[in-house]
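Q: Please design a sequence for this.
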């Protein structure tokens, strides 16, 4: 039987940080929100906040601690990170992470890699607590999870091996992500060539109708797939709808008819409208239906002088972002209003020209999506290999002292 040990024997879980307590209230400390928690060099330790601002409502950590995300979907993404080189030695982080402090005699890198194994991630998902869409890994699971017991020298050998191999894989992933970024930039350039908003162009309010979603009360949400889906902001991506995290409504009434979605409708996320991939706007397809529009998502329907595809691409243009971005409301989550959507000036061409531009952009988008899909498949393969390699090394499926690591690239 493999000799294993509970995490609580290798490390302290969610320990106190007395060094934090002793700092003056006006001292700056490193601040790590959940979106900054990524493995290895991708961990972002650049933010700082006065201690007085983060003394409550955040967890504390110090240099050498491991930050382990506990909430979906961040947990499943294997984003546990070892905090090394913390600028202020101690810091505050989102309450959506557990803090693990390896005990003396253990290599912190080895402990961190234990949180990237298939067993940890799989068993963690099974231990989730909470409602669908907002589930968390409990403290007790983390404390009782078992990792292969090894001497400090063995831990270092494994960590050194994985540091090398993971860095190689991450470089391949980085290059693929750069290629995807270049593809998206090329598509954006093509869009911007056809959509240069001018003061003489008519406002969108004269050309289309904007309907913000209805404020369905959350206590009435259903998770029964037989009920009607509610289109929320989380479902609106860049050029696509994603229903992985969905809620439903059991009994639509006649009063909700204005919020019924139809194939060909254009919808736009109103909270954080721009993300890494671009504008959160998408077209509704037949397979997305039936669905109802929830608040903080806008429905755009063109008038008789505007072609729907032309309208869709007009809002994906940089000109729209430049027109409204300085006026977005909300500090932590920028919000786009219906009035701002309507204030955008859209170049109004004859309908034949609109149709031609819409078809051209659709073809370019399909080509981009096809190439991006191929590159993403390679990234997924590399991430799967990294996880398998980490699991095999930590659990002892192979001896890292004899592994060549060839074939990773």
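A: Design:
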């Amino acid at each position: 039987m493999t000799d294993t040990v509970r995490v609580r024997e290798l490390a302290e879980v969610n320990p106190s940080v007395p060094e934090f307590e002793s700092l003056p209230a006006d001292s700056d400390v490193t601040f790590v929100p959940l979106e900054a928690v990524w493995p290895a060099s991708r961990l972002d330790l650049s933010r700082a906040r006065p201690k007085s601002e983060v003394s409550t409502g955040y967890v504390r950590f110090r240099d050498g601690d491991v930050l382990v995300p506990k909430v979906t979907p961040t947990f499943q993404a294997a984003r546990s990170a070892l905090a090394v080189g913390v600028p202020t030695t101690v810091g505050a982080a989102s309450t959506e992470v557990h803090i693990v402090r390896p005990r003396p005699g253990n290599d912190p890198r080895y402990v961190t890699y234990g949180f990237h194994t298939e067993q940890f991630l799989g068993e963690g998902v099974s231990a989730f607590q909470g409602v669908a869409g907002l589930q968390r890994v409990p403290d007790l699971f983390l404390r009782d999870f078992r990792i292969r017991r090894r001497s400090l020298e063995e831990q270092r050998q494994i960590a050194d091996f994985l540091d090398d191999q993971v860095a190689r894989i991450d470089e391949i992933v980085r290059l693929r992500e750069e290629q995807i970024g270049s593809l998206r930039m090329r598509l954006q350039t093509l869009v911007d060539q056809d959509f240069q908003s001018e003061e003489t162009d008519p406002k969108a309010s004269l050309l289309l109708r904007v309907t913000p979603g209805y404020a369905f009360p959350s206590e009435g949400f259903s998770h029964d797939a037989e009920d009607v889906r509610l289109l929320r902001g989380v479902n609106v991506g860049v050029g696509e709808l994603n229903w992985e995290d969905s809620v439903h409504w059991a009994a639509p009434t006649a009063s909700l008819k204005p919020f019924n979605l139809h194939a060909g409708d254009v919808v736009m996320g109103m909270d954080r409208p721009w993300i890494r991939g671009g504008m959160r706007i998408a077209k509704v397809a037949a397979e997305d239906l039936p669905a109802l529009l929830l608040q903080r998502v806008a429905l755009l329907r063109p008038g008789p002088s505007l072609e729907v595809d032309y309208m869709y691409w007009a809002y994906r243009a940089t000109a729209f972002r430049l027109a409204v971005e300085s006026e977005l409301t909300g500090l932590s989550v920028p919000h786009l209003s219906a009035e701002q959507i309507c204030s955008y000036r859209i170049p109004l061409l004859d309908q034949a020209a609109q149709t031609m531009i819409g078809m051209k952009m659709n073809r370019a988008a399909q080509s981009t999506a096809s190439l991006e899909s191929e590159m993403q498949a390679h990234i997924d393969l590399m991430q799967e290999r990294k996880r398998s390699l980490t699991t095999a090394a930590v659990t002892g499926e192979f001896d890292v002292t004899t592994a060549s690591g060839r074939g990773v690239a």
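Q: Thanks. Anything notable?
A: Residues 405-409 have pLDDT under 50 and may be disordered. Residues 4-149 form a domain with the Adenine-n6-DNA-methyltransferase TaqI; Chain A, domain 2 fold (CATH 3.90.220.20).
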